Every structure is written in structure tokens, then in C-alpha cells.
Amino acid sequence: MKNLLFKSLMIIGFATVFVACEKDDSSSTAQSTNAALIGTWEATTARNINKENGVIAEDSTTTLPAGLYTTTFYANGTVINTFAGDQDTAKYTLAGNILTLIYEYPNNPSDTSVLTLTINSNTMKSVSEDTYTYDSVAYYYYEEISWIKK
Length: 150
Hints:
Layout: H1 2-11, H2 26-37, E1 39-52, E2 55-63, E3 69-73, E4 78-83, E5 86-95, E6 98-105, E7 108-120, E8 123-134, E9 137-149
Antiparallel strand pairs: 1-2, 1-3, 1-9, 3-4, 4-5, 5-6, 6-7, 7-8, 8-9
């Protein structure tokens, strides 16, 4: 359960939005986006929406205690997530506002998470959505995390 919550929090969103009036050089924008991501981020709030067959089963927003969940992005493509003292390491790629996290576990297949990010100076929002069907029930999961840069 702790691992699921940890991954769920990571999956929740990261979407980088840059607004420009003139023609934009995608190369410099990508470099700016990557540079803005590098560093340590602390989660401040988490919103979860769960639906079963289109009916909302949960819609909650939680204020997270300071230091409970942090994520550190390194320029070499490594990210270290710390949740309640437990650490998990992944590789990441960032294409525009789409963050892909690849977790490698000994004796297990890798796990990939895709998030949408919005970065504005020292704040970030990550969003993740997932749908699946199990036992004839259609599930929808949405998670959004707000972050501040440390």
C-alpha cells in the first residue's frame, strides 16, 4: 500500500507550461524546461479523484506535512523520491511538459509512469491519470500534486 501511494504521488502530474508571443525556439525551451526541473521539490498538497463506472468514489485534497514527500531531479536523468523516509530511484526523460519516470527493480519488471507537469518559477504541479477495467468495473484515477522548490 505504501509503495502504491508512493508511486501514485509520483504519477500525479508534472506539466511545464511556457507562454510566448513570438516564435519559440523549441531547443531553448526544452533546455529551459529541463533546467527549471533540476533540484529538490517538496510536495505540499495532493488531490485524488477516483471513479468507478463513472461515479465518483473519492474526491479528496490533502495538505501534506512538511518534508513528508520530496523529489530531487538531477541533470544526468536520475530522480530520487523520498516518501516518509523511504527512497526510490528512477530514470527520467522530459519532453515538453511530459515527464516519463522509469523505475527498475531487482527481480521485477520495470515500471513506467507518465506525468504532465506545469512549472512556474518555484512551484510545480504534477498530474497523472489512469483508467482500467477489472471485474467488469471501469476505474478512473486522477492525482494532482502541488510542489514547491527547496
